[in-house]
Amino acid sequence: MEKSDIMSLDLDELKEELTLIGEKSFRAAQIYEWLHVKLVSGFDEMTNVSKQLRDKLKEKYVINVPNIEQVLESKLDGTKKYLFSFKDGSIIESVLMRYKHGNSVCISSQVGCRMGCKFCASTLDGLERNLLPSEMLGQIYAIQREIGERISNIVIMGSGEPFDNFDNFLKFIQLITCEKGLNISARNITVSTCGLVDKIRELADKKLQITLAISIHSPTDELRKEIMPIAKKYSVNEIMDACRYYYKQTGRRITFEYSLIEDVNDSEECAKALIKLVKGLNCHINLIPVNTIKERNYKHSTREYIEKFKNILENNKVNATIRRELGSDINAACGQLRKSYMEQTLRNGE
Ligand code: SAH
């Protein structure tokens, strides 16, 4: 019998499960605390739970904490990249960024991705599978345990499209913001999407205080279609309508990510079209020099072009920042670390 995933259960579900196996429901609170506050990776660490119950739990459940396969640490700013593996052999990556205001972790939401953005390494081999809520939590728990410090901010901006794994994403949010768990405030969570309009609206209706980041990367449908296949399904205008709706429902300022690619989307016309697009919306634009991946020949814009692009936005009262490069000595674009690791293991015939 396949064991079930205990860390994806909320407290009420855990209570129900325990009642079903003939245990008192108050045990659920203890077990929940072991899993989501004390961050154990095995049932035997639950020292106030009887051996008998621990054995029962072991038989029926699994704790989905990933294994750390590799850690790369930046000598410049302490940024750490983690390569994790799950029991089925899936490999994912997560990043720890250290800021003055606290520790932030960027997690993956899927193994691989099927969105097909041209500049992104995560999508080169397509989607392998969705991550479970527990496997999204597990990345944060493993890092918090490893560094022995609290994680206070989460960005769901690693490999995968979180809105293509929407139900698991929502459950993850419920669990990570749970008062009886790590209790991370929704205001300290950012989710990034390539623009799945229906899901943006669905999330808006939940009225959570999560920051929504949209990977816009182009102000026009024509150009966007060239670099992001999802643009064939949803137009830029539909995305903007959904963003206005998100703002109306949540009051949260929207972030737009704009990866600058030389001679593709870094012209003055693009900047002007972008200004027109976001006019009237409370938002912020994050300019990212595109990270070259070896499978594609996109180059990032020159510093001069990036500054110029930013100035055009700012002169028109559009908030913009150039993303600070963290961990540039361990730099690898989204999904690149995983990809090179997998290629290496393939070569070694493992
Ligand atoms: N699927 C989600 C989240 C994962 S990607 C999304 O599309 O938003 C996180 C961000 O990194 C996105 O803005 C994505 O477009 C960007 N990105 C991916 N590969 C990149 C690269 N090589 N250089 C710069 N940004 C990249």
Topology summary:
Blueprint: E1 4-5, H1 11-20, H2 26-36, H3 51-60, E2 61-62, E3 67-73, E4 80-85, E5 91-99, E6 102-106, E7 110-112, E8 127-130, H4 133-147, E9 151-156, H5 166-176, E10 189-193, H6 197-206, E11 211-215, H7 221-227, H8 236-250, E12 254-260, H9 268-278, E13 283-289, H10 303-315, E14 320-322, H11 336-347
Parallel strand pairs: 1-2, 6-9, 9-10, 10-11, 11-12, 12-13, 13-14
Antiparallel strand pairs: 3-4, 4-5, 5-6, 7-8
Helix pairs in contact: 1-2, 4-5, 6-8, 9-10
This protein binds S-adenosyl-L-homocysteine (SAH).
Describe the structure.
- The protein is α/β, with parallel strands linked by helices and 350 residues long.
- The chain contains 11 helices and 14 strands.
- The chain has helices at 11-20, 26-36, 51-60, 133-147, 166-176, 197-206, 221-227, 236-250, 268-278, 303-315, 336-347, and strands at 4-5, 61-62, 67-73, 80-85, 91-99, 102-106, 110-112, 127-130, 151-156, 189-193, 211-215, 254-260, 283-289, 320-322.
- The strands form 3 sheets. A 10-stranded mixed β-sheet has the order 3-4-5-6-9-10-11-12-13-14, with helices on both faces. The protein has a two-stranded parallel sheet with strand order 1-2.
- Helix 4 (133-147) crosses helix 5 (166-176), helix 6 (197-206) runs parallel beside helix 8 and helix 9 (268-278) packs parallel to helix 10.
- The longest helix has 15 residues, at 133-147.
- 41% of the residues are buried.
- The chain binds S-adenosyl-L-homocysteine (SAH).
- The site of S-adenosyl-L-homocysteine has 18 residues, from strand 10 and strand 12.
